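Ticket opened by: R.M.
Priority: normal
Category: complex prediction / small molecule

The reporter submitted a protein together with zinc ion and asked that the result be attached to this ticket for the collaborator who will pick it up next week. Submitted input follows.
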Amino acid sequence: MDVSTSSASPTSGLPPCVLALDVGGTGMKGAVLDRAMRPIASLRRPTPRGEGPTAVVDAVAETLLALERLAAERGLPVAHAGVVVPGIVDEDRRRAVWSANIGWRDLPLAAVLESRTGLPVALGHDVRAGGAAECALGAARGARNVLFVAVGTGIAAALVVDGRPVRSGGLAGELGHVEVRGGTACACGGHGCLETLASAHAVASAYTARTGRPAAGAADVAARVREGDPVARAVWGEATDGLAEALAMATTLVAPELVVLGGGLAEADRLLLDPVRDRLAARLTFQRTPALVRAGLGDRAGCLGAGLTAWQAVDHHTHTLFTGAPTP
Ligand SMILES: [Zn+2]
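Result attached by the on-call engineer:
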């Protein structure tokens, strides 16, 4: 995507833009997006999660105001802001219900940010928003039954069935917490969760535990798999087996045509996709075998999803204004 640095006067009558912000466990990615979802400006800032949830809320509000200034410098009126966060997010109630990573509990985040910034704010879930972006702009364009799986520090999924996102009060899509063989005790309180075997964090930790040698991350383990390191190969094999087992379960239940793998582990590309595809196909009998592809938007999916969330809120308000009825 091109990044325009053109400016215009505040009275230029330019079309409105939206502010998009993806709040991650370590960093925030923000952008000013036009109606065609092109980034006009962007910024990245660290997430101060070590300082607690209040500091994170402060940083999110400040970053939205910084994005608003970037829009103002270009003379662009802001139609809406979209903010996506990890954990359990109830989009309809506009609340960040829970995040182990950031530490907030049942926080009316959209309303808090609106009062702090004066901007209209729509709240979304990082992975569901990323999945929506992959459907609109990325690897899942044109597909109506999609499972988007983000395999990063944790594992979560976005599910689109018959063209509609499945949210269920923000609780749907927790693929990281289905039980698979080889899984261990999980931070969620369960045992055997996929996340304990196949997240980027789990892969790096398992390698370090078995060898005593630190792994800088899942990418480091992937590099050792390519070099033929037998421990790395064993750890990688268990992770891909676990992913295939969970995907087989999801395929049996909701029959996606397309599975899109994103997040840090998908950076390994074919080293991840090929064995997961083979092991998934081997597990299926009568089911439709989904196509398995790598995400197309990389780490921009969440931010673009935040932008889509904002534009949807604009369209919803416009529809309500002219017909008096909410959009279906
Ligand atoms: Zn769990």
